[in-house]
Amino acid sequence: MNASTPQTLLVVGAGISGVTAALEAAEAGQEVILVESEASVGGRVIRNHHYFPKMCPPTCGMEINIQRLEHNPRVKVMTSTRVTQATRTDSGWQVRLTQAARTINERCTACGECSKVCKATVPDPHNANMNEVSAVRLPHPAAWPAHFILDRDACSEEDLRAIVSACKYNAVDLDATEKEDTVAVSAVIIATGWHPYPVENLDQFGAGKIADVIANVQMERLAAESGPTAGKILRPSNGEAPKSVAFVQCAGSRDVNHLPYCSGICCLASLKQAIYVKEQLPECEVTMYYIDRRAPGRNEDLLTRVAGMEGVKLTKGKVGKVEAESDGSLSLRLEDVEAGRLLTASADLVVLATGMVPHLKDGKLPFELKLDDDGFGLDDPDAKIFIAGVSRRPEDVASSVRDATGAAAKAMVASLSQQRSA
Ligand SMILES: Cc1cc2nc3c(=O)[nH]c(=O)nc-3n(C[C@H](O)[C@H](O)[C@H](O)COP(=O)(O)OP(=O)(O)OC[C@H]3O[C@@H](n4cnc5c(N)ncnc54)[C@H](O)[C@@H]3O)c2cc1C
After folding, report:
1. Best mutation site among 35, 44, 83, 273 for ligand 1 pocket (most ligand atoms within 8 Å of CB)
2. pLDDT band for position 355 (cuts 50, 70, 90)
């Protein structure tokens, strides 16, 4: 067993919530192990072009957190790692951590010589699979730790040989195997976040079949300089700038057949994306079709700003169907609620505002977790398990950060009470 102290906290998931919880606890004196299944930290936030309410790039917030992580010896960050076993003990939990085989290890300097010799490509997960990327690469430009990853199965033997010999730092180890470690921890914070609701389930909107029907997470990448079009908002079907964009709100949300709940951020995400479109394509007509416009608290300023923009229309109406027309445009069938009539509208590009599904719903963590009816986690103080961020409920970054700080405090109190009673 590894030499973790009995007061060590385990944080699972290194998105904004997990990173915040780990840092807040560590800066208050707690030893922390932060486990992330991906090769780098940052979670979903890092895939946004800008984020509301300040409309700044997400890297600015993450850079500060990464500096805090780099300078805090109390946080041990373990990437490409999962919790594969968990056993309740008198003092908390004993957990087994399994780190995937690191075919490119920490000696990697991200010099990029290996990418130059590798011919294999794969769909780029960072860009919602909208472009191909080298099978050996940095996960994304702001990745931390800044080590390359290798999609070994996509490579030929020739590619692999070339990658090994291109590396001057002896960082490629094709014989690397999984590593396991068992640690004792006093409390656990779960911050495994969310994945987008699969658009393939939304047959009525043609998603996955009609090229110009995209999800909101794809729009984030289309607008980003490091995205598949170098930041140009273009129709996937023909690479041309759209003359009209329609945002379909509650695409699969507040719908008993899909996600019964409101994800809370989709209206704000579409309002933000309307700004991306208007800033880049001032002549483009933007329409947002909504059931309710939900922009709580100070985020109402964003709603007021976008509603007042020329060429932006907010129409109360639930879209029932999207179809491709023979001229390449898209037709949307909807009920215009305020006018009390059925309507057919047209657009060049349709963005589906899909909601957030908690990873906890997949049931892949080896803890016995308490979940609500929608699959979001509930704190279990008796078991010393605390939930942070979107694992707990759908919310924005600011709320996730507040939530994670609270989870850190609760987990520290649980650890301290354990120490006192020991
Ligand atoms: C289209 C869209 C746009 C958005 N734009 C904004 C915006 O502009 N402003 C804003 O405030 N909010 C925005 N949001 C919401 C924002 O993305 C969330 O608030 C944020 O991602 C919550 O962070 P998190 O850390 O809780 O979860 P995540 O970002 O999902 O991070 C979870 C982390 O846990 C890791 N993980 C998952 N499972 C495991 C496991 N088993 N073991 C270890 N690690 C695991 C994941 O790899 C990930 O790194 C947007 C959401 C959407 C859908």
Report:
1. 44
2. very high
Q: DSSP string spanning 303-320?
A: HHHHHTSTTEEEEEEEEE
151: its two tokens: 């999609």
Q: Tell me how far the alpha carbon of residue 400 lies from the centroid of ligand 1, in angstroms.
A: 9
Radius of gyration of the chain (CA): 23
Contacts of 278 by beta carbon, 8 Å cutoff, 6+ apart: 284, 286, 309, 311, 312
Q: Would the CB of 397 count as within 6 Å of ligand 1?
A: yes
**Which one-letter amino acid corresponds to residue 217?**
V
CATH number given to 198-354: 3.50.50.60
Q: What is the maximum span of the chain, computed from C-alpha positions, in angstroms?
A: 74
Sign of CA dihedral 319, 208, 268, 408: positive
**Helical pair 16-27 and 397-421, crossing angle rounded to 10 deg:** 40
244: Cβ below 6 Å to ligand 1? Answer: no
Q: For the chain, percent helix, then strand, then coil, each to nearest 5?
A: 30, 30, 45
CA distance 221 to 322: 22
pLDDT digits (tens, 9 = 90+) for 9-26: 999 999 999 999 999 999
CB 232 within 8 A of CB 225: no
> 265 CA to middle of ligand 1, Å?
12
Q: What is the pTM of this model?
A: 0.96
- Which CATH topology does 9-100+178-195+357-421 take? FAD/NAD(P)-binding domain (3.50.50)
Q: Which of 393, 340, 353, 338 has the alpha carbon at shortest distance from 371? A: 393
CATH code 3.50.50.60 region(s) in the chain = 9-100+178-195+357-421, 198-354
Q: In what order do the strands lie in the sheet with 32-35?
A: 75-78, 32-35, 9-12, 187-190, 385-387
374 in Cβ contact with 261 (< 8 Å): yes
CB 11 within 8 A of CB 413: no
For 139-167, write each residue's pLDDT tens digit.
999 999 999 999 999 999 999 999 999 99
Closest to 288 measured CA to CA, from 323, 312, 261: 312
Question: 157-162 long-range CB contacts below 8 Å, 24 or more apart?
Answer: 158/119, 159/117, 159/118, 159/119, 159/120, 159/135, 162/117, 162/118
DSSP single-letter state for residue 199? G
